[in-house]
Each structure stands twice: as structure tokens, then as C-alpha cells.
């Protein structure tokens, strides 16, 4: 597992040109991306619908990078095996979803995969504290999940990122702290200063003419 103090850049496939999926993934590979981030939405937990396990399976043959799969779905526990079979390396589920959180995290681990836990902007940090010793990654949403192109919610999210960093240090843990939503050249450094090390970026990377240059700039 990467060091939790190393900055990791994870382009979000949601913002790519799906008609050119193979070449878009190859562009991320060649541009120096560390992980590939995939946002799964079910139309229930969030209002939007994106894609399911088959799409993850379509991405898998085109990259050896970590597939960082974020399940924005109501019953993530019902689909873990499908996303594992599709080629996910890490599966992140929401603390707000309808499931036994500890059991879901353990199920992901039982498949030999890394597990993550996500929380929405309106959810207090305390909601994830009971599970922080059970995860490889904490995802602090920096927008309301469901749609791309939103503005970075610094006031709501950054105190939680700071709290996550402090808790990790105080308890000798090693989870990554990931941010997702409104991440571009300015906000990536705000997130980094507050303690995030995994930066999920969609439009600012797949929409860039020079993705490699954009990734280099995000590394700071």
C-alpha cells in the first residue's frame, strides 16, 4: 500500500469521453496517473445513475493502475462480489448507506481487496470514527455526491480532513485520506495542506489538453 503521506492523483472516469474509453484510460496511464477512480451511482443513494460492474470490467483490461471504485449506492453489501470480479482493487462504501458497515468492510477484505469508507459533506466526522481502524482509505466528499462540475466545499469538508489526519496520527493508523469533488489546480493544494493525500479529479484532468502537465501541477 502506498504511503499515506504520498500524494496520489486519481483521474475520475466519470469525466472521460466514454465513446473513447480505451484511449482515455491509456491517456491517463501515459500521463502519470497513480490510480483510476470510478464513481458508481444507483439513482437511489444519489439522484444520478452512472455505471455498474460491467463498466469497471471494461476499464480493467486497459490499465494496470489501481482501480479505486467508489460505490454511491444504497445497498453496497449486495454488490461487493460483482465489483471484485470486475477487477476492482479498492472498494469504498458510504457510511450513510443502508448496510452493516463493519460487515461490508470485512467482506471487501475477505476478497483480498482494500476497503474505504466515504462520508458526505453534511455528515459529521464522528460518524466514521468507529470504523477508522478497519479501513485503508477515508473519502471525504468535497461536493454533494451525484453530479460532476460542482464547486469545492472547503468550509464543510476541510475540518473533517484535518480531523481525519489528526486522528490517524494520534492512533497510529495508516489510512489514506481522499478528496473528491471540485478538485483542480488551486483546491488540490488546499486539500493537501489540510491533510488529504489522494486527489480525485475529473474535468480538470480528462478535460485538460495536457493531462500529463495537469497531473504534474497537481503533485505540487
Assign the structural class, choosing from mainly alpha, mainly beta, alpha/beta, alpha+beta, or little secondary structure.
alpha/beta
Could you state the CATH homologous superfamily? Answer: Aldolase class I
Low-confidence stretches: none
CATH top level is Alpha Beta
Cα separation of the termini: 22 Å
- Provide the CATH architecture: Alpha-Beta Barrel
User: C-alpha Rg, in Å?
Assistant: 16 Å
Largest sheet: 8 strands, parallel
Could you report the average pLDDT, rounded to the nearest whole number? Answer: 96
Strand order within the widest beta sheet: 1-8-7-6-5-4-3-2
Give the helix proportion (percent range).
25-40%
Keywords:
alpha/beta, 8-stranded parallel sheet, 8 strands, 33% helix, 20% strand, globular
List the helices and strands and how they pair.
Layout: E1 8-11, H1 21-30, E2 35-41, H2 53-59, E3 66-72, H3 80-86, E4 90-94, H4 101-110, E5 114-119, E6 137-141, H5 154-171, E7 176-180, H6 187-194, E8 198-201, H7 203-206, H8 211-219
Parallel strand pairs: 1-8, 2-3, 3-4, 4-5, 5-6, 6-7, 7-8
Helix pairs in contact: 2-3, 5-6
Textual characterization of the structure:
There is one protein chain. An eight-stranded parallel β-sheet has the order 1-8-7-6-5-4-3-2. It has eight helices and eight strands, in the order E-H-E-H-E-H-E-H-E-E-H-E-H-E-H-H. The protein has 220 residues and is of the alpha/beta class.
Amino acid at each position: 500500500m502506498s504511503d499515506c503521506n504520498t500524494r496520489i492523483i486519481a483521474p475520475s472516469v466519470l469525466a472521460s469521453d466514454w465513446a473513447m474509453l480505451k484511449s482515455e484510460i491509456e491517456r491517463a496511464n501515459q500521463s502519470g496517473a497513480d490510480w483510476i477512480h470510478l464513481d458508481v451511482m444507483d439513482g437511489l443513494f444519489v439522484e444520478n445513475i452512472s455505471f455498474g460492474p460491467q463498466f469497471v470490467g471494461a476499464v480493467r483490461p486497459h490499465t494496470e493502475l489501481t482501480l479505486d471504485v467508489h460505490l454511491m449506492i444504497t445497498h453496497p453489501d449486495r454488490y461487493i462480489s460483482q465489483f471484485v470480479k470486475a477487477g476492482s482493487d479498492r472498494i469504498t462504501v458510504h457510511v450513510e448507506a443502508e448496510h452493516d458497515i463493519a460487515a461490508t468492510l470485512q467482506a471487501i477484505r475477505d476478497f483480498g481487496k482494500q476497503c474505504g469508507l466515504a462520508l458526505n459533506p453534511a455528515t459529521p466526522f464522528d460518524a466514521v470514527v468507529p470504523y477508522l481502524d478497519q479501513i485503508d482509505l477515508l473519502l471525504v466528499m468535497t461536493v454533494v455526491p451525484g453530479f460532476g462540475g460542482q464547486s469545492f466545499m472547503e468550509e464543510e469538508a476541510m475540518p473533517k480532513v484535518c480531523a481525519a489526519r489528526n486522528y490517524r496520527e494520534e492512533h497510529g493508523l495508516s489510512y489514506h485520506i481522499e478528496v473528491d469533488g471540485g478538485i483542480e489546480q488551486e483546491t488540490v493544494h488546499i486539500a493537501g495542506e489540510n491533510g488529504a493525500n489522494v486527489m480525485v479529479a475529473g474535468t480538470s484532468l480528462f478535460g485538460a489538453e495536457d493531462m500529463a502537465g495537469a497531473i504534474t501541477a497537481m503533485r505540487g
